[in-house]
Amino acid sequence: MRVEITQHVGADSGTTNPQSLVMSQEECQQLAQLLLDIAKPSPFMWPISVIHTVQSITGVSQGETIDIDDGDRISVELSPGGFGHYASVAPTTNQRDAEVLRKIIAKVFAMRAPTPPIPSDPVDADDPLYLMYDKRSYVPVSLWHESTATAMGTARSDVIAKVIRQVEEAQLLGTATIGFAARSELFMHPLGRLAYGKETDCEVTVTARTPDNKASGWGGHASRDWSRVHPEAVAAQAIDMANRSRNRVALEPGRRTAILGPAAVAQLVRAMTELFFYDNAVTGRSPFWIGHRTTKPPMTKLGQRVFDPRIMMTSDPNDPEGGYMPFFEYNGERGFPTPATTWIDHGVLKYLSCGIGTAMRTGQTPRDDPFSMRLEAAPGTKTSTIEEMIANCAEGVYVHRFSGVDMVDARSGLMTGVTRDGCFFIQHGKITKAIKNFRFLDSPIFALNKLAMIGTPERVAFGYRNYGRYETRFPRSPIIVPPLMVQDFNFSALADAV
Amino acid sequence: MSSPSRRTFLTQSAIALAGLTSGVGHRAFGMARLPIRSQQPVASFFPELIAADTLQALATTGVDAARQAGAEYADIRLTDLRLLRLGIELGDSGVPTIVGNIPGAAITFELSYGIRARVGGAWAFVTGNECTSDAVAAAGRRAAATARGVAASVRQPWEMVAAPAVRGEWTTPVRVDPFAVSPDAHVNILGALYDVGARATGATAWPRVTWTGETRVFASTDGSLTTQHLTHALPSIYIDAKTGVPRVPDVMLRFRDINPISAGLEIFEGAALQERLKAAAADAIPLLQFPIGAADVGRYEAVFDGTSMGAMAAYTLAPALELRRVLGYDADGVGTSILAPTADVLGAPLFAPCLTLTSDRSMPQYGAVQWDDEGVVPRSFPLIANGAVVDYFSTRATAGALASWYSKTGRPLASQGTTIAQSPSTPPRARATDLVIASGASGTTLDTLIRGVKRGVLVRSLEYVSSDQQLSGGAFFPEMLFEITRGKITRRLIDSGVQFGTKSFWKGITTMGDASTVEYGVARRYPNAGTIEYTPVRAPAAHVARLDVIQRNG
């Protein structure tokens, strides 16, 4: 049996219907149903996910287009599912031809063998765990924007020309990345669960450097809606940072008041994601762990204040600045509804992320890891602009962003990285000079307990390159954060890097 | 020694295993819970491979379509990829019990292609996974059209370096094809290695491996058409000796005899390997006995073992020598390079005279190929000779930036064959890979280097270095850092780290260890979404004159 699937065209193909960029729910369901039909003779359950991604990424450097990476990729994955038989072989493929899929499934079946069930597997249809796979409803979300889908095929040339011209007129060397992505995702379980969503996303980043390579500035903006992205403003910010970074001087390292721009805060928050995993918290790989390994039950800091009481950290599929698919995958188990979650409520740790097995054991609700997160001021908290923070700073350092942030010690959340693309000395309420970059060695857990002032959040761009271990998508899941002013931030050493 | 048949190999291994396992072995802990049980070869679980001539026809269709659409050059890579990942890990309980150890496995089948076209000096890259003539041709046309659309932005394109058209077929020489044995055999072998480690009281060996089997076809409008049947192994065995002391990290060493390589299952063969693993596991135990302390902040002499020197090279020199980064193309991403501009760097004595670094993609290095992803035959070439940078990693498209240097040194301008597309769906780039640091004089063992230190530190099994955006410096916080006093290891240092400047570090090497100290370091980088790049480096131990030791708590 062959299933006819509409050929989807990628960027710059002249497509006239942005809606057909990615597989529709009907098309995804058709493919998933084909797989289920093939697998039907099997006593095993086969949750299936279908992910279709179309991207268009353009890199520009020093006046020339140096990279164009347009992709049309599909991933079909049969998740492990046992119910009496533990199967941890998870086949993944990017093929959708019926005959190829038939061969794949037949052969993966041959690899299986009955094994004793593991304790967390459901044993029969009456098992509560079994019921977790039945039909569920999902929060309706609106992640698809026609403006982005249309721009994917049309905006590239125009945006490139404008950004290049802008940076060159400023007598600077410019490098920029303009990226678009459209994605559809379906999860289907034979017990009835069906989840489908589609999304668009886009990002523009610009780095401007002085011709002597002694100063650098950066700007970036990400949004699901291309109409809200302003490449000229992004370039203007990069140019401004570069020009203000000329004639840098060295400042003594040490603990100082730091005003962290949203891009810098976002990099710290992104690196904190794994600290919110329940499994990390109960095994000492997170600052949210307390007690010894032998404590039963494992002790965490759930319910305790871990940050300044002015801090709220939430994840919401309907976040107006970002949002995400209302279902998630955890350790190969897909399709669980993703509730909106308040991770930190007035500084108190309310939830940790966990999958279905852990949730059943501990009485929690399964929650996706906080790859998409908003950090903002608690209701009623006065917020301040960066200019107001600077004006209120007797002496400190403004940090525009960091280079790659690395976790040094998960137990304390200690991280390290280097400032880049804009680092300035503040004295008596004013920026007085551009300074050389610093290496920092500090923990956002500590920093968020030494909060002086907090701003208004915005979504931050991360760029196309330099990803971490957990990052598998571009643009990265939305991180929406404010600028922060924190005390005693540890700038541990000078860094020669520009 | 003649190559054994698969049956003989397994029988011999089984005999060897039986000789080393007794009492509680892998059969007791895990066979009942292992998810993969079959006597069929692993290859039988994948769909029949697309015939090579079909892939070749598709490749030719793609580049022909791009040329007809106006491309002045186009190339394509199509791949039929099979991946098998196996490992032995702790179970979810986190308790290191035999019953709790559950091998994990994943299996991937992928067919994909990436086509690159150049029009008016501008490049475009299009990927897909529907391997039909229509789809590949459409991708070729689209790549040409997209490149044409941005060609106006190109001012002075580099001329592509000439390379002869190549045609042919090549297969990684392996003795035991990992895809030709059964899953049971794979699990037996890993289980036996685990058992060997377990026999060293107080230590555990965690074996894991990713096998890649790939048929990769390359074609270009220059007339090249190559087919390569590639087999690569990314194995590791980590020896974990538990301290049992809260907040004191375990001793974790990577078994140095198992490394990334283009080879087959023979890498795990033989009783001698298991004896060495057992000895290595036993060697880890004495490291637990050193008193624990924190380093005083300050400047010290340092000895790095081969693994650590490899990691230092992989995270600093290797990316700094990628020409794309040097030219500023990645300034908006990972950053720039301290080894820029090329005119100021090439030939200048920046580093210690004992530092010589080469790249060697010949067999049996990991990623060995007959032709790179631009159809160029890789050659071993020096990047740093006696402390001076003498070359960079470039592609046919970027090598033009080195034209004056090549002319000055009397060499024809050429690509060295280091262009790699991590997968067909990622654009090919020149990547640092398979680096070799030349070892020093015979007799300079690790013990010799340690004995020569009055007050310093020993860095062992370094896995990761945090570098800045220009690779001008970095820091690391090793779990295996030891204090040396008057030529002897006196303490294990915790909560300590090291900060360094890249140039001062590599300039400050006084002595390279001899061939007996050579080990592998491997860097894992995540340059793009969903992509992992591995940079293996073979390096000897070394003595460094000066290193800044800091405390984590700042």
What can you see in these coordinates?
The complex is a heterodimer of chains A (498) and B (554). Chain A has 498 residues and is an alpha+beta fold. Chain A is built from 10 helices and 24 strands. Chain A has a 6-stranded antiparallel sheet with strand order 3-2-1-4-5-6. In chain A, strand 13 and strand 14 (348-349) form a beta hairpin. In chain A, helix 1 packs across helix 2 and helix 4 packs parallel to helix 5 (231-244). The longest helix of chain A is centred in the first third of the chain and has 24 residues, at 146-169. Residues 1-16 and 82-88 of chain A have low confidence and may be disordered. With 554 residues, chain B is α+β, with helices and mostly antiparallel strands. Chain B has 2 domains: 6-288, PmbA/TldD superfamily (PmbA/TldD fold, 2-Layer Sandwich), CATH 3.30.2290.10; 290-551, no CATH class. Helices cover 23% and strands 30% of the residues of chain B. Chain B has helices at 6-20, 26-29, 52-68, 133-150, 183-198, 271-284, 306-320, 323-326, 342-345, 403-408, 446-451, 502-507, and strands at residues 73-87, 104-119, 122-128, 167-171, 203-220, 225-241, 251-254, 292-293, 298-304, 357-359, 381-385, 388-389, 419-420, 429-430, 435-437, 455-459, 466-467, 473-476, 481-485, 488-493, 496-501, 509-512, 519-525, 533-539, 542-551. In chain B, the strands form 4 sheets. In chain B, strands 8, 9, 16, 17, 18, 19, 20, 21, 22 and 25 form a 10-stranded mixed sheet that branches. In chain B, strands 1, 2, 3, 4, 5, 6 and 7 form a 7-stranded mixed sheet that branches. In chain B, helix 5 packs across helix 6. The longest helix of chain B has 18 residues, at 133-150. The termini of chain B are far apart. Residues 1-35 and 93-104 of chain B have low confidence and may be disordered. At the A-B interface, strand 1, strand 2, strand 3, helix 2 and helix 4 of A face strand 2, strand 3, helix 4 and strand 21 of B. Strand 2 of chain A pairs parallel with strand 3 of chain B.
